[in-house]
């Protein structure tokens, strides 16, 4: 009796070929067929490419049973070490360059727009709203730094009312959510740009720091022989209706590890200088004891600009794949 | 100042190109270079193929930030739900066909050798040693089944002293290690073949069962529209010095889901009939109340036979990749 009886997901699809005697050459097609019975054509496409690449990886490496098991155990350990504030899988994605790649893919930038950089594992929804001029860091050991920025569109028009998340590590390179004894959010805040598209706040000068290596990520660094340091940087995320979300960071020009960031986030256009504070600014913003200033002008891509680029890139990729596929929501999907 | 200072893994490799302005097209090479600083040439090759396929997957799907995050959260959940006796990542590998594929790759079979099948997540090291003729299941609701097997080499010579793990679910399709109230190992045991290469034991007739879907694996089945059932089967694993480990299973011919096993394990050569007990066997092995018998003759590949096939397949794959690589331990590796 063949397997055509009912299950939670309804009866097995009688149109699928019988899946017996699967071997190295024919198994991929069978697994893809089996994963293509859902309703979402985007997920069918994702499963198809996922199964293809996982299988090709095993075929090309001639992956052994012991290596397979070690890999699964390592992935299990990545999940087990996670907590609300420790996101080991994001770090894994970061150190494999996947996070930078996905940001480049999903947030394409037209000429003139500020480039993106990785989100990292330390963005937190717990951040407090801040007013222009507020202090975001209570670390008294940090070097005080005034940050003055603008946010505009690609035509040079100021964008008022943008919601801007900023976050940075403390003077020891540790984020608030890494600390078990923290009283509340620190080293972070959510600002709004004013009518001139300006936003500004007090912070501390960022320092380089190592990625936390007391878990599976540490094992990976050890085996791959890599260093685990990030150059000094400050994170920014911009949200404003009509504009594509910008996730980025600014990197200090002189910082160690700038040329070999462990998570591949640095771009020349995001490398900045910290200058001596000028007296005009110090007076205007009432900053008698702050000696350093960082200035940056951010430029957001509009939704339309980003979508046009997504469509163009997706179409090119599908053409290269030789695929009978269509775009839905600016990303590739299956036709069926 | 460039990043050439000391770190846990020694100074950044000055010979690596500066990793700034990484984009969709150039990031893969940089990440591979960075992952190639370890001492193990096999791991370098594995990392190279892993990074290549993860990146190609993201590029081809135009993976969005939301999809990326959903995928990482799903992987985190897979790790979080794992316990000593629940191995969600093995199940994930099983339902993606990876487990079957890796067994086919790592345990190639010469003509005449018994084919492999997947290990699954329910093998346990807690199993007790059993003698020929022992009962492995204490499930009184199961249909009693006598299992009589032989194990030989590819020339037909009996293999005495082989260590044989057997395991099966109970009459409700549940394994011992799935039960929180279990007293000890049940439905499993470790036997030894006798001088004639025979091993035999009492068990129960296996039944089909669904894969546990109360976790991330269930979400996957839901999205992919697949059923989650396995046909009735019994697991076997053979260990004997000089022979390649054989992980396999026997499947009942009439079982539901035989043609659409949720984990792609069925092979025609592993499909068996359960027969009515014959009086000669019942008398010889003192089984007055057992009405069913399953017979199977297993054939093990020698280490030499398996290694020769590994070398041949690995060389073919490397040739197809156009790679300057060498085999170490019968698997591909890098030359440097």
Automatic annotation (TrEMBL), chains A, B:
It comes from the Eukaryota. This is Uncharacterized protein. It comes from Xylaria curta. The lineage of its organism: Eukaryota, Fungi, Dikarya, Ascomycota, Pezizomycotina.
């Amino acid at each position: 009796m063949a397997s055509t009886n009912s299950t939670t997901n309804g009866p097995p699809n009688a149109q699928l070929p019988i899946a017996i005697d699967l071997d190295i050459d024919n198994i991929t097609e069978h697994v893809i067929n089996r994963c293509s019975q859902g309703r979402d054509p985007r997920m069918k496409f994702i499963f198809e490419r996922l199964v293809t690449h996982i299988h090709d990886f095993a075929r090309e490496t001639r992956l052994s049973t012991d290596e397979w098991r070690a890999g699964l155990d390592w992935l299990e350990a990545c999940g087990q070490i996670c907590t609300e504030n420790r996101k080991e899988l994001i770090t894994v994605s970061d150190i494999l360059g996947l996070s930078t790649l996905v940001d480049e893919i999903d947030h394409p930038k037209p000429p003139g727009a500020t480039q993106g950089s990785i989100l990292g594992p330390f963005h937190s929804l717990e951040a407090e709203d801040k007013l222009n001029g507020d202090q975001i860091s209570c670390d008294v050991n940090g070097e005080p730094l005034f940050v003055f920025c603008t946010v505009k569109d690609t035509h040079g028009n100021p964008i008022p009312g943008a919601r801007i998340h900023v976050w940075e590590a403390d003077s020891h390179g540790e984020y608030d959510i890494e600390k078990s004894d923290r009283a509340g959010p620190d080293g972070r805040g959510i600002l709004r740009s004013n009518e001139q598209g300006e936003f500004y706040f007090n912070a501390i000068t960022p320092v380089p720091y190592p990625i936390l290596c007391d878990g599976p990520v540490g094992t990976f660094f050890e085996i791959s022989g890599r260093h685990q340091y990030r150059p000094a940087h400050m994170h920014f995320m911009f949200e404003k209706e009509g504009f594509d979300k910008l996730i980025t960071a600014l990197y200090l020009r002189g910082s160690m590890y700038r040329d070999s960031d462990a998570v591949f986030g640095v771009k020349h256009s995001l490398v900045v200088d910290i200058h001596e504070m000028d007296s005009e600014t110090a007076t205007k913003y009432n900053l008698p004891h702050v000696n350093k200033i960082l200035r940056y002008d951010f430029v957001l891509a509009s939704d339309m600009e980003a979508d046009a680029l997504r469509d163009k890139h997706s179409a090119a990729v599908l053409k290269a794949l030789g695929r009978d596929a269509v775009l839905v929501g600016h990303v590739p999907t299956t036709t069926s």
